[in-house]
Amino acid sequence: MTVEEFNKTVDLYADNLYRFILKNVKDSEKARDIVQDTYEKLWLKVSDVESTNAKSYMFTTAYRTMIDKIRREKKQGDMSEANMHSLSHNRQYSDLKEILNEALTKLPEIQRSVILLRDYEGYNYAEIGEITSLNESQVKVYIFRARTFLKNYIGAMENVI
């Protein structure tokens, strides 16, 4: 990959990469750090990565960097995790996007990642498996479970509107 191709890659995929990480970590500063670390890693391997594989390499690297950061933070502990919310939604509210985002935070980390890669970023099952180091059938199972949880969490549309 040349410097021009690297710059083009940054321009093309930075927003998508940031959005994917932000949906997972829910902290804009952490998301920026992870994206920056991803581009740094890509820059260090710029001669080894083909420009055609750059998007997949970046999402894989960002995903793994995010997982490492989350694991490091879990070891340190977080007081905000002590406040547990109920798993059901029973109030009347019309902002479906906010409800969906809240529901996404309730998903286990791997389910949230695969559902975001599939439904928000548009990756196919094989690409998601490559990014997350899962086989294709595992990806399908996690997506099914995540969608089932989201359906049950949100409930009928009449309850939301």
Described by strand count, sense and barrel closure, the largest sheet is: none
Could you state the CATH homologous superfamily of the largest domain? RNA polymerase sigma factor, region 2, helix turn helix motif
Overall spatial form: globular
Oligomer: single chain
State the domain count.
2
* Beta-strand content estimate: under 5%
Q: Give the overall pLDDT as a whole number.
A: 81
CATH topology of the largest domain: Rna Polymerase Sigma Factor, Chain: A
- Termini separation comes to 50 Å
CATH class of the largest domain: Mainly Alpha
* Helical fraction: over 70%
CATH architecture of the largest domain: Orthogonal Bundle
State the total count of DSSP E strands. 0
Poorly predicted regions: none
As a whole number of angstroms, the C-alpha radius of gyration is: 17 Å
Name the features.
single chain, 161 residues, mainly alpha, Rna Polymerase Sigma Factor, Chain: A, Arc Repressor Mutant, subunit A, 2 domains, 8 helices, 0% strand, globular
What is the fold's blueprint, element by element?
Elements: H1 3-25, H2 28-44, H3 54-76, H4 96-106, H5 109-120, H6 125-132, H7 136-154, H8 157-160
